[in-house]
Amino acid sequence: MLGTLSFWVIGGLIVFIVAGIISAEMDSAFAALVTLVIGAVIVEWGMGISLISVLLSNPLWIFMGLVLFAAAGGLYTVVWRWPEFIRKNKDTIMSSYTRWAGDRKSGQDNSFDAYLDSSDYDFNASAHAERLTTWVILWPFSLTWELARKPAFWLGKTVYYSLGNTLQRVGRSTARKLHDSSN
User: Fold this and answer.
1) pLDDT digit string, tens, across residues 30-54
2) Where are the domains of the chain?
3) Where are the alpha helices (DSSP H) in 77-138?
4) Longest pairwise C-alpha distance within the chain
């Protein structure tokens, strides 16, 4: 019995972690809700911990934990995810600005700051409330995924370019030797 229960708890935790990472990458509040429900089901039925009992017996600790969790998620979102999102959309922002500035009449302010204050700028935080809320709620999954994949991408890119540069030098050296020996 214990082996089967452990199997389902471990399987449920794996599903919970994968669902959390996918939800964080999709920037979907609905997917975040599904992830939280999966987590609650694992705790309630998989681990046999009554969530209602825990909430009722420790309301102040739960509240403080939620405040700290939200503060950490907010910090992560403000410092990392939102600036990264803006950087990823640089081309969209710049082409939108160029269009907007070109449509301005002579004498109208067409500075970038005026564009940022205009309704044509689509990257105001209020326009991305669902995405920002998802990042705040799912920050542990998102941060884990970022820290796990970025070093792997960096290592792969470094090996690729190092190997390419080495092969380029070998090829140039070989071609130089062929050239020199034919003269």
Assistant:
1) 877 888 888 888 778 777 778 778 7
2) 2-77+125-160
3) 82-88, 90-103, 112-117, 129-137
4) 90
Quick one: which of 84, 73, 182 has its CA closest to 134? 73
Helix, strand, or coil here: 124? Answer: coil
Two structure tokens written together for 67: 């405040």
Residue 127 Cα to chain centre, angstroms: 18
Res 78 pLDDT > 90? yes
Q: How far is residue 112 from each of residues 93, 96, 116, 117, 163, measured CA to CA in Å? A: 10, 11, 6, 9, 42
Q: Average pLDDT for residues 159-163, to the nearest whole number?
A: 86
Tokens of 50: 């009554």
Instruction: Give Cβ neighbours of residue 41 (< 8 Å, ≥ 6 apart).
Output: 12
The per-residue b/e assignment along 81-112, b for 16 or more CB within 10 angstroms, e otherwise, is bbeebeeeeeeebeebbeebbeeeeeeeeeee
Q: What is the value of pTM for the model shown?
A: 0.66
21 C-beta neighbours (distance < 10 Å), count: 20
| CB burial readout 47-63, b (16+ within 10 A) else e | eeeeeeeeeeeeeeeee
Rounded to 5 degrees, φ, ψ at 87 are -60, -40
pLDDT digits (tens, 9 = 90+) for 101-149: 988 888 888 899 999 999 899 999 888 988 898 889 888 888 888 888 7
3-state SS assignment for residue 120: coil
